[in-house]
Amino acid sequence: MVYTICIGSNEQRQRNMAYARRRLSELFPGIRFSTEEETLPLQMQRQELFSNQVARFQSDATPDAVKQQFKQIEQEAGRCPEEKAAGIVRLDIDLIACDTTVYKPEDLQREYIRRGIRQLDKT
User: Fold this and answer.
1) Which residues contact 11 (CB under 8 A, 6 or more apart)?
2) CA 109/CA 106 separation, integer angstroms
């Protein structure tokens, strides 16, 4: 199965994005990453910029198992419910699509995600 994901952070962005790439590369050899982009926050009180990046990899794991691995990486990076309520996103890893199944159709409308997917389609 081919997975398309998005990674984001608005707290210690450089460190947390690098951590996500390292951990994802360990779990999913052959993963490919688009260029990291800085974006404005959407629907949040906290106005810190986000770093976002799209990635694509192949895995035989089920979507539920993959999402569980994402949650584990987010927790390792220090993500907790209290910070989320305050608008602090140390690390967020979302499953956008698996093969032809789209999990986050609203995310596919975001231009930075569309750019990342186009970039990955070319490689």
Assistant:
1) 48, 83, 88, 89, 90
2) 5
CA torsion sign, 20 to 22 to 28 to 33? positive
* Token pair listed for 89: 């996103």
Please give the Cα distance from 41 to 21 (Å, whole number): 21
**pLDDT tens sequence across 51-106:** 999 999 999 999 999 999 999 999 999 999 888 888 899 999 999 999 999 999 99
Query: Which amino acid would we find at residue 22?
Result: R
**Positive/negative CA dihedral, 66, 72, 73, 75:** positive
Place of tokens 């209290």: 82
Query: 31 in the Ramachandran plot: left (φ > 0), alpha (ψ -120 to 50) or beta?
Result: beta
Amino acid found at 61: A
